[in-house]
Automatic annotation (TrEMBL):
Organism the protein comes from: Streptomyces coacervatus
Matches recorded under InterPro entries: ACP-like_sf, PP-bd_ACP
Domain of life of the organism encoding this protein: Bacteria
Protein name, as recorded: Carrier domain-containing protein
Domain Carrier as annotated: residue spans: 6-84
Pfam families according to UniProt: PP-binding
């Protein structure tokens, strides 16, 4: 994993933590299901998308707002990294 990937993962983790509907555990892994764990709900998901746009300058299309893209920190990373950050 490149330094840029590591930086993006840290930024995504910060966005998830800031927008979470419940406090994420300290040991939250990059592959943990943040929806199933109750860390993210529909409102916090919308806040996360707004934060991604504002903080990272990356636009997320409505069609991309699915659990497979936002189910974990790593899946969010895959989506955003694929947009050529």
């Amino acid at each position: 994993m490149t330094a840029l990937d590591e930086k993006l993962l840290r930024e995504i983790r910060a966005i998830v933590t800031d927008c979470a509907s419940a406090t994420p555990p300290d040991d939250l892994g990059d592959d943990d299901d943040i929806i199933e764990l109750g860390i993210v709900d529909s409102l916090s998901l919308m806040e996360m998308v707004a934060a991604v746009n504002a903080r990272l300058g990356i636009w997320v299309d409505d069609s991309e707002l699915v659990a497979r893209n936002f189910g974990s920190i790593r899946s969010i990373h895959a989506l955003l990294a694929g947009k050529g950050r």
